[in-house]
């Protein structure tokens, strides 16, 4: 069981090959099994020494719809609708952890936060309005351009620092932040374990790390892939690969390996009648985890 | 130098002098000098007919805020919320924002040319009550208490009432409501509009809310539609590209993240923002006035007459307020007739005119039919029909207002939202109009607070649509019910009269129904019947 779990994390080479070998639109039900057979047949020497967690195909997907980031009715609408709920969790956990007054309008005053995979900045801007000093990082150049343009529309968001770079490069620059937030990114990277190690390296000792992703369960397949992509057309087809989702247990494990202890976890639940997302204990589809970096 | 330039120079200097007197707080001399230099530069530029030079992006946030708070008539005055219309509902919104921890640091501009907003009008206790009154429901009273405005209302004349009687001219049935039916002390409170307004104003003067009252009217409004501003040289002017720009009649212009239209039934904001409305005019006018009785009146009376209801509401100190709905010809006649004739007409309408008094059917007689409700009797089911107190004297002028139903199809779009009468007007027959408006104001401030908690831009459409969805449901429900009543009672048709009588009897004797009606009308219950 443990070995299966370890082998579950694909390398760059492996995943790229696996994704490119399947047509973009084909269902990925059979993929877990394909991954396993490839893993067993590969030999150790073919593991790529490039420690980047980038996945070029994923980048291309996002680059093509970059202009629609701030269109509240466009392809990113689900993210816009979910945003306040994610921010509520972040506000609550970070205020508790850093002992900030939750009734203050700008509780994150004085905190340095990095938003890894910031996209068009839909998370970075509210964080900046809450008083934080925000750095937004994304591997897609177009996203950074859009984010920079949009953030200039208000005085509180004009100070956000946007960089087109990766978490690993930031680690090389030896940047450190009080809180590292990476939402809905880890399911698009090639090597989640390496990615988590980078996130941990960016966090100061006793700082906060927040990661959100989609669970790998039957329910999430039905909801996030079939319902969201094929039936409701909330997301373009092929946005997510079910095999790349992480279960909460796996996420906790790889974060622990990166010396981050997960303290709190919550799920997002969508109510189709009201069209609202709420935080709940149900982590079977979307979930978010808050962890702290072990003090060295 | 052209004449226009000279005129604007003098105007700018005057404005600077006036505003400088209002500036509070310590200014260091260097800041004053910097400000003075900036103003002089601006004046020079305007006078020479040049375009106002764009400011270079200033990292010194303190200096920028300082200049904003001075309210100089330049193009960079920047507010979080601009409330257009400083009436009861607009001020209630401002009070509510001031009372919540997350919103009290917002910068608010209130635009209203009403001189009452300068806070200089004093309400004398000896004055007879103004005919413009509103009935506030218990839900509204508790909201006022939450923001700390009710204590100011209590310092002036206000009248709680705990009983209400409704009947119609056919004399076939009546309903009495009592606050004890739902274990409450009061059914509502009748307060003059000017008292409500000045209480809200006093409340807000005592808070730290950063506000500026602009005593002028809104001329035009530009809501910038693009969500991606084009690259401009100066970052500061691109800040304003995405905000709403308001131009006022006295020449000021200001930018705001959110424009709130609280400017009443003929809302200019609603027109400028392009919101369409649905509705119709009732072919009825309301005649309102204040009258005096021999004894104190503590019950609210409403009698439905063939051409519309007449309501008698206690306002305190033996005075009552009359709201008499009738068709336009009769309303002009009422306004023209002399006082004695009018008083006689009032007594006729309230008491012996148009039809007989309803029979008081005490439960003893109808025991068999309603016996299974007897376990759960309401206090008022046992009360007899009472005749309303005689009107002795007319103590104020008579005002006439046309009545209509109007509802904006949408309450919100990017950077603009409507509350109060700007969004909906209703028939006064149940005293709900301003209560819906107060409900809107308090709901909007709560939603703004929730938005700020998660760092949302308060002018963002998703946030405002949350407010719209919440309030539309309730407002439409109430409007539909009131419109239904208005239509049901404006027809004199035998079988319909009997149906109405049956409705009166039903409401009087079926306790769960009565409790439901009281709770809904008091604002405690969100939906009628389904609690």
UniProtKB/TrEMBL annotation, chain A:
Family annotation (InterPro entries): SAM-dependent_MTases_sf, UbiG_MeTrfase
Pathway info: Cofactor biosynthesis; ubiquinone biosynthesis
The protein's required cofactors: Mg(2+)
Keyword field: Magnesium, Membrane, Metal-binding, Methyltransferase, Mitochondrion, Mitochondrion inner membrane, S-adenosyl-L-methionine, Transferase, Ubiquinone biosynthesis
EC top class, as a word: transferase
Residues annotated for Mg(2+) binding in this entry: 184, 187-188
Broad class of where this protein is predominantly found: mitochondrion
Sample GO molecular function, one term: 3-demethylubiquinol 3-O-methyltransferase activity
GO cellular component: extrinsic component of mitochondrial inner membrane
Annotated membrane topology: Peripheral membrane protein
Subcellular location, record wording: Mitochondrion inner membrane
Catalytic activity annotation: a 3-demethylubiquinol + S-adenosyl-L-methionine = a ubiquinol + S-adenosyl-L-homocysteine + H(+); a 3,4-dihydroxy-5-(all-trans-polyprenyl)benzoate + S-adenosyl-L-methionine = a 4-hydroxy-3-methoxy-5-(all-trans-polyprenyl)benzoate + S-adenosyl-L-homocysteine + H(+); a 3-demethylubiquinone + S-adenosyl-L-methionine = a ubiquinone + S-adenosyl-L-homocysteine
Family label: Belongs to the class I-like SAM-binding methyltransferase superfamily. UbiG/COQ3 family.
Quaternary structure note: Component of a multi-subunit COQ enzyme complex.
Protein name, entry field: Ubiquinone biosynthesis O-methyltransferase, mitochondrial
Organism: Vitis rotundifolia (Muscadine grape)
From TrEMBL, chain B:
Pathway(s) the chain acts in: Cofactor biosynthesis; ubiquinone biosynthesis
Principal subcellular localization: mitochondrion
InterPro entries: FAD-bd, FAD/NAD-bd_sf, Ubi_Hdrlase_CS, UbiH/COQ6, UbiH/COQ6_monooxygenase, UbQ_mOase_COQ6
Enzyme Commission no: 1.14.15.45, 1.14.15.46
Record GO terms (molecular function): 2-methoxy-6-polyprenolphenol 4-hydroxylase activity; 4-hydroxy-3-all-trans-polyprenylbenzoate oxygenase activity; FAD binding; oxidoreductase activity, acting on paired donors, with incorporation or reduction of molecular oxygen, reduced flavin or flavoprotein as one donor, and incorporation of one atom of oxygen
Pfam families in the record: FAD_binding_3 (PF01494)
Subcellular location: Mitochondrion inner membrane
Cofactor requirement: FAD
Reaction it catalyzes: a 2-methoxy-6-(all-trans-polyprenyl)phenol + 2 reduced [2Fe-2S]-[ferredoxin] + O2 + 2 H(+) = a 2-methoxy-6-(all-trans-polyprenyl)benzene-1,4-diol + 2 oxidized [2Fe-2S]-[ferredoxin] + H2O; a 4-hydroxy-3-(all-trans-polyprenyl)benzoate + 2 reduced [2Fe-2S]-[ferredoxin] + O2 + 2 H(+) = a 3,4-dihydroxy-5-(all-trans-polyprenyl)benzoate + 2 oxidized [2Fe-2S]-[ferredoxin] + H2O
One GO cellular component, as annotated: extrinsic component of mitochondrial inner membrane
Biological processes annotated in GO: carotene biosynthetic process; xanthophyll biosynthetic process
Alphabetic keyword roster: FAD, Flavoprotein, Membrane, Mitochondrion, Mitochondrion inner membrane, Monooxygenase, Oxidoreductase, Ubiquinone biosynthesis
Domain FAD-binding residues, every copy: 79-347, 397-472
Annotated membrane topology: Peripheral membrane protein
Oligomeric form and interacting partners: Component of a multi-subunit COQ enzyme complex.
Entries under HAMAP family matching the protein: COQ6_monooxygenase
NCBIfam families: COQ6, Ubi-OHases
Function: FAD-dependent monooxygenase required for two non-consecutive steps during ubiquinone biosynthesis. Required for the C5-ring hydroxylation during ubiquinone biosynthesis by catalyzing the hydroxylation of 4-hydroxy-3-(all-trans-polyprenyl)benzoic acid to 3,4-dihydroxy-5-(all-trans-polyprenyl)benzoic acid. Also acts downstream of coq4, for the C1-hydroxylation during ubiquinone biosynthesis by catalyzing the hydroxylation of 2-methoxy-6-(all-trans-polyprenyl)phenol to 2-methoxy-6-(all-trans-polyprenyl)benzene-1,4-diol.
Family the UniProt entry places it in: Belongs to the UbiH/COQ6 family.
Protein name according to UniProt: Ubiquinone biosynthesis monooxygenase COQ6, mitochondrial
Biological source species: Vitis rotundifolia
Gene that produces this protein: COQ6
